[in-house]
Recover the amino acids of this structure.
């Protein structure tokens, strides 16, 4: 992803989409549980690894609770996706009948347990209180892009470079 103008901008890469909204239909994902490709031969297969499946299920359960309040929800079974250096567990969701603005949806879904916040109320406060987490900046923040009045997307910025006249910052 990337966006820039007049000496400032952001570029980055992320496997996680917070949501894609088209009209009253939203697509999102639970993306948690991973295995570096270099370790895949020596480990339990990702779709059979109890630890990774449990972590993934925490994200799935949290997301399902939140999505049910937005409209009619359906989900796919857990699957595995291959990225350049990792395998991830993924469960895809679709919600129809959405009557919230993108900003309301972002506030409702972010941050997810995949960003280290579970249970939400306790986990978020715990994360905020960690001294080495005080300057997380935009790490894990939703980046929102609007195509038009009907279509928009929010990505979870886990690897990004922001720059402006003062310099550049990398979040990873």
């Amino acid at each position: 992803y990337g966006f820039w103008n007049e000496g400032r901008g952001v570029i980055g890469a992320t496997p996680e989409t917070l949501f894609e909204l088209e009209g009253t239909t939203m697509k999102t994902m639970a993306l948690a549980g991973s295995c570096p490709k270099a370790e895949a031969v020596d480990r339990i297969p990702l779709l059979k690894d109890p630890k990774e499946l449990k972590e993934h299920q925490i994200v799935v359960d949290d997301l399902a609770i939140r999505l049910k309040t937005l409209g009619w929800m359906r989900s796919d079974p857990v699957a595995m996706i291959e990225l350049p250096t990792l395998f991830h567990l993924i469960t895809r969701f679709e919600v129809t009948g959405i009557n919230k603005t993108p900003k309301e949806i972002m506030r409702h879904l972010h941050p997810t347990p995949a960003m280290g916040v579970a249970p939400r109320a306790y986990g978020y406060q715990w994360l905020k209180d960690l001294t080495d987490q005080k300057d997380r900046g935009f790490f894990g923040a939703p980046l929102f892009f609007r195509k038009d009045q009907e279509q928009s997307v929010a990505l979870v910025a886990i690897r990004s470079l922001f720059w402006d006249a003062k310099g550049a910052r990398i979040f990873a």
About this structure: The CA atoms of residues 124 and 130 lie 10 Å apart.
